[in-house]
Design brief:
Helix content is about 30%, strand content about 20%. A nine-stranded mixed sheet has the order 1-17-18-16-14-11-12-13-15, with helices on both faces. α3 packs across α5. It is globular, with a radius of gyration of 25 Å. By secondary structure, the protein is an alpha/beta fold. The protein contains 15 helices and 18 strands. Bound molecules: S-adenosylmethionine (SAM). The site of S-adenosylmethionine (SAM) has 17 residues, from α7 and β12. InterPro entries: RNA_M5U_MTase, SAM-dependent_MTases_sf, U5_MeTrfase_fam. GO terms for molecular function: RNA methyltransferase activity. This is RNA methyltransferase. One of its GO terms (biological process) is RNA processing. Keywords: Methyltransferase, S-adenosyl-L-methionine, Transferase.
Length: about 525
Amino acid sequence: MASSFAFAVHPSFICSSVATRSSVSSPLPVLSCSNPLQGSLSTALQCQHFQTCSGCSHEWDLHQPPVLAEANDFFRSVGVSDFTFDSGNLWEWRCRAKLAVRGSSSNPSVGLYQEGTHTIVDIPYCRAHHPSINAAVDVLKRGITLFDIIPYDEDMGTGELRYVQMAVTTYDTSLPAAERYNKGKVQVTLVWNSNNEHSPSSAKLNTLSNFIWKNGGPNSKNHLIHSIWVNFQTSRNNVIFGNRWRHLLGEIDFWDRVGGVDICLAPSSFGQANTKAFNSLLQNLQKYVPYGASVADIYAGSGIIGLSLVATRKCRSVKCVENNKESRLSFEKSLGRLPRTVDSCISWHHADASIEPLYWLQGSDVVVADPPRKGLHPSMIAALQKLPSFKHQASNEWSRSMLKVKEERRPWVLRAREASVCVESKTIGEKSQLWPKTLLYISCGWKSFKEDCRMLLSDKAWHLEKAHAFNFFPGTDSIEVLAVFKICLQAWTSVNPWQQENSQEEETEDKCLAAGT
Ligand SMILES: C[S@@+](CC[C@H](N)C(=O)[O-])C[C@H]1O[C@@H](n2cnc3c(N)ncnc32)[C@H](O)[C@@H]1O
């Protein structure tokens, strides 16, 4: 139960907050706002699972997570006084959830761990979930009970169903635009405790998926399931997915639309959980990329950011670097839906960006880096710190010597350099002597971001020009940051007094000096 407060709900809040399409509409929990230190009910979580479920840590003021005050101070201290925050949707924002399945077939729990335990809390009325996720979980649980599907037992390693991933597409052009989000459809992935589709429990897997399809697919009275997949995983560790994925029912391709482009996401690829907030971030990010820029999209996943920039900023080239090979197919499919008018060099590399980071940075004037929560790899930071000294070294020969291309013999490094997917431009030639002037750092880990930011600013290599944050995870004390760094040239020019290339760079240099970075 949520809290010990007594309750009074403002009627307008009830209207705006009740799940719109779920057959599992939540009895709202009892809260009151008698404590003047608490925020308004209109921005409160009001979830009955709060405190038992580990998903949300904050119940009040969802529009301003506590870390925001610290972020504001931090950005001020590094010279950014106009830091902005976009608070977005406070409920029903989660379009992608991985939920553990535990308990028994007669009483299954589908949810998250209770804080600090290995107990799974059933969260049928989760306020963060898109309503279609809660509705799909409800169908799943009925199927588990009806067909005696055994939930996974972590201690014994037994059972059939371990996890379920639910991903919502909010892109159905047959619906009016205003209805698309609420009527989103779910790609369900069942994580099954067997080696493959030939195992003895496969009959039960098929029965369960047919039940879900019958009760949530296109011929049901509440069409909420887009497709059903299975992932086979027998490992005893706590890695959620195994390597074997199979499509079972519905459409294979899962399309959504963000950042002005159609994107296809396989269940095995990384996908942002908060589709609307991600879209806002992309629209903001686009403004910092000059038309015709060459972009390196590092930690690219299925290349959504890079493709969005190709389409909206008419980039000369975009190079995506990602170490999960599963994302390649999604990238290829999304690439196929770019407008025909796009004329750019576009490539996607299956590579570890921390190995030879300079190789990936070369040839671009804008770097987008969207690393996992732990932040940039030390080797990537070191490479970014070196960039000011490369700025005017335009010769390819010099670049090659810096990158030690001639000496490189390691087959896996040479393999990674070859693009897994590549589209040449019809008109644009290569311009590999470029080095980045702008770094757009997207971060979901505030702690690691601060450290990386300090490192980048510490030796005057970069200057922080702008910072924005987005409420990607309302109910938690996390923010997604978009930080705009510009290269500083004075460190380099003090030893190499070459002429500045253009006035924009002079301006950036002045700002670096003014900010004392
Ligand atoms: C926060 S996600 C961002 C994905 C993508 N930019 C998006 O928004 O969809 C981070 C990505 O970095 C990838 N990654 C992690 N370590 C990497 C490495 N050493 N080299 C390249 N990619 C890496 C992960 O597989 C994941 O797709």
